[in-house]
């Protein structure tokens, strides 16, 4: 063995381990949460089942007449989609907090903003996207006029993203509490009101023959602001809830 080999070993040992890039950390968190979500398919189905049950009960509890249901359809579908999203928010960070992986995530050198964004994206993929895809079926069940199907799906596509992002703030604030579901509702519901108003208004305007591009533009602006600000607020809330 030459005298040079031990020096090379020492120099290699002294080098710090390379930290994965931001993109690698984001995709690793995204893939992990998607796998966990598909292992718990029952929890994935809860918001969808809730949505279907409530929409099924509307004609029985109000009126089976098509004219009455058509007037209620835009607001009713949006309200039930909002409540279905709210139903699944408590588990956004809960399982990670209970098994200790959330603390490891907070100590990770990766920016917490992108880790939170990956988790919210998975929540939207398993909750908001299925609700959007099911919108035409719900419209048929409530006799929604044909002019409202496209705006309904477009508004839900933008709006459910906002709901998941804003809801992450409430989920982060209450993650350390045993029964934080009610607190999430109290914290988040006032922030959901503008999304609900513009989402339902876009569908109603399209049905009445008015342009709905303004409402969709506002929902797009809400989504852009939520993508920028909500993960930052949720990351700060997680640090306060876990370390505070």
UniProtKB/TrEMBL annotation:
The keyword Cell division does not apply. The keyword Chloroplast does not apply. InterPro entries: Cyt_c_biogenesis_CcmB, Cyt_c_CcmB_bac. It is found in: Cell inner membrane. It comes from the Bacteria. Coiled coil: none annotated. It is a multi-pass membrane protein. GO terms for molecular function: heme transmembrane transporter activity. One of its GO terms (biological process) is cytochrome complex assembly. The chain crosses the membrane at residues 44-62, 68-92, 112-140, 152-175, 182-204, 216-238. GO terms for cellular component: plasma membrane. Keywords: Cell inner membrane, Cell membrane, Cytochrome c-type biogenesis, Membrane, Transmembrane, Transmembrane helix, Transport. Belongs to the CcmB/CycW/HelB family. PANTHER family: CYTOCHROME C BIOGENESIS B-RELATED (PTHR30070:SF1), HEME EXPORTER PROTEIN B (PTHR30070). Required for the export of heme to the periplasm for the biogenesis of c-type cytochromes. This is Heme exporter protein B. It comes from Pseudomaricurvus hydrocarbonicus. The lineage of its organism: Bacteria, Pseudomonadati, Pseudomonadota, Gammaproteobacteria, Cellvibrionales.
């Amino acid at each position: 063995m030459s005298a040079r080999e031990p020096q090379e070993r020492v120099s290699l040992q002294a080098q710090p381990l390379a930290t994965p890039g931001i993109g690698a950390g984001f995709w690793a968190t995204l893939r992990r949460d998607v796998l966990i979500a598909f292992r718990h398919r029952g929890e994935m189905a809860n918001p969808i089942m809730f949505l279907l049950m409530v929409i099924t009960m509307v004609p029985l509890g109000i009126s089976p007449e098509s004219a009455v249901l058509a007037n209620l359809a835009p607001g009713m579908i949006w309200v039930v989609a909002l409540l279905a999203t709210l139903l699944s928010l408590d588990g956004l960070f809960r399982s990670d907090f209970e098994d200790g992986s959330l603390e490891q995530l907070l100590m990770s050198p990766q920016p917490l903003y992108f880790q939170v964004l990956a988790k919210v994206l998975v929540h939207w993929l398993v909750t908001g996207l299925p609700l959007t895809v099911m919108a035409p079926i719900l419209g048929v069940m409530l006799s929604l006029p044909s002019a409202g199907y496209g705006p309904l799906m477009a508004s839900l596509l933008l709006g459910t993203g906002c709901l998941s992002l804003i809801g992450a703030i409430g989920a982060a604030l209450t993650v350390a509490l045993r029964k934080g579901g009610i607190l999430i509702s109290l914290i988040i519901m006032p922030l959901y009101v503008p999304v609900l108003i513009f989402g339902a208004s876009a569908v109603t305007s399209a049905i009445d023959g008015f342009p709905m591009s303004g409402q969709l533009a506002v929902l797009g602006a809400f989504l852009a602001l939520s993508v920028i600000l909500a993960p930052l607020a949720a990351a700060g809330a997680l640090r306060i809830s876990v370390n505070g």
